[in-house]
């Protein structure tokens, strides 16, 4: 079996993630191709798309949110993702086992829900949230009024895990995001599921966006268990490799695997970006071992990560000037490329300054 190097893996995934060069796609097309964007921080999807799309303007994603083409909802790993309306229905049943398992383990709400028949509260929530979007506080108040003997906060959290809810605008709008207001996906999108969800189709999409990948990588991305059987079903349609540590990797036969691996431009990523969160073995993006502890410490006060030649090499924060703290020495040409990309980031963020400060981590 062919061995694929970490550098080749890096370039293959960067190409699929639209991070080797910016692509001419619409925001909605990119969100679909990437199987959603991590979105618990409202500005993160905008930064993620800016780093990936040629000519991206935040207004395009604002229009897609307000036009109900994309939605913010709980999906992979039990976290908020920005996905197309179709994917809100296609993905949620597939990741539902993760949310089912999470609820009883919740340290606060799990015990309060032990033995509770959730049928009536969930039915009430569906009716309420179909009428109009509610804030979490309003939903809790309704529960307190209708089910006074139960924990209203726990019931609201159960809705998060058992109903497909979307966070409606202005939450998630560029420059004017608001508090969380919830609606059912069916009422907000005006439709329901169009086709039977398929775990095999999901894994093929995962490989198209994040491959080549091991079974454990797909499990990390989705937090689903028992994926080996699905990969074995798909094996005749896939190609396989070994990585430098001997793990078996699966991939789509015609997916991008640049050979030889080309240079990778510097890219500023948001605080949470799926490209760095979707593999059990993150060696393909890891900083050199001697830099990892410093970067981990610096990340706690950062707004995002910096990729240099495809690897995490620094963190950034834009408080006035853009401050980039990087591990190790940056060659002069590389530093200039980082600064130029940083000035473009400042324009996106609407800052009055174009000052980029590069500072080596001590």
Description:
The protein has 362 residues and is an alpha+beta fold. Among the domains are: 20-189, no CATH class; 286-360, no CATH class. Helices cover 42% and strands 15% of the residues. It contains 15 helices and twelve strands. The strands form three sheets. The protein has a five-stranded antiparallel sheet with strand order 1-3-2-4-5. Helix 5 packs across helix 9 and helix 8 (136-146) packs across helix 9 (152-162). It is globular, with a radius of gyration of 21 Å. The mean pLDDT is 95.
What is Rg?
A: 21 Å
Helix fraction, binned, reads: 40-55%
How many helical elements? 15
Structural class: alpha+beta
Helix-strand sequence: HHEHHEEHHHHHEEHHHHEEEHEEEHE
Distance between the termini: 42 Å
Q: Regions with pLDDT < 50 over 5+ consecutive residues?
A: none
Overall, the morphology is: globular
- Sheet-strand content, in percent, reads 15-25%
How many beta strands in the DSSP annotation? Answer: 12
Strand order of the largest sheet: 1-3-2-4-5
Main sheet characteristics: 5 strands, antiparallel
Average the pLDDT over all residues and give the rounded result: 95
């Amino acid at each position: 079996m062919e061995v694929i190097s970490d550098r080749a893996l890096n370039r293959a995934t960067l190409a699929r993630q639209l991070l080797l060069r910016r692509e001419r796609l619409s925001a909605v097309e990119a969100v679909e191709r990437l199987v959603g964007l991590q979105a618990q921080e409202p500005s993160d999807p905008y930064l993620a798309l800016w780093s990936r799309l040629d000519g991206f303007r935040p207004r395009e994603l604002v229009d897609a949110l307000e036009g109900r083409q994309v939605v913010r909802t709980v999906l992979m790993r039990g976290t908020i993702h920005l996905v197309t309306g179709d994917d809100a229905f296609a993905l949620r049943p597939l990741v539902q086992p993760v949310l089912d398992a999470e609820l009883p383990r919740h340290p606060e709400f799990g015990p309060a829900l032990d033995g509770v028949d959730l049928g009536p509260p969930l039915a009430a929530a569906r009716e309420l949230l179909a009428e109009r979007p509610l804030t979490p506080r309003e939903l809790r108040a309704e529960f307190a009024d209708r089910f006074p003997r139960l924990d209203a906060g726990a019931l609201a959290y159960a809705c998060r895990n058992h109903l497909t809810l979307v966070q409606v605008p202005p939450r998630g709008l560029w420059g004017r995001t608001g508090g969380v207001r919830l609606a059912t996906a069916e009422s907000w999108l005006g439709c329901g599921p169009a086709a039977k969800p398929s775990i095999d189709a999901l894994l093929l999409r995962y490989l198209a966006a994040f491959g080549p990948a091991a079974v454990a990588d797909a499990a990390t991305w989705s937090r689903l268990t028992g994926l080996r059987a699905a990969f074995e079903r798909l094996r005749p349609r896939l190609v396989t490799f070994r990585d430098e540590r001997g793990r078996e990797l699966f991939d789509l036969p015609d997916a991008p695997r640049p050979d030889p691996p080309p240079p990778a431009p510097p890219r500023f990523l948001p605080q949470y970006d799926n490209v760095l969160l979707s593999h059990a073995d993150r060696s393909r993006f890891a900083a050199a071992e001697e830099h990892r502890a410093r970067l981990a410490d610096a990340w706690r006060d950062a707004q995002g990560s910096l990729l240099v030649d495809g690897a995490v090499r620094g963190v950034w924060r834009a408080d006035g000037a853009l401050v980039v703290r990087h591990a190790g020495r940056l060659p002069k040409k590389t530093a200039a490329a980082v600064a130029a990309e940083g000035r473009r980031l400042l324009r996106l963020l609407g800052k009055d300054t174009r000052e980029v400060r590069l500072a080596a981590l001590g």
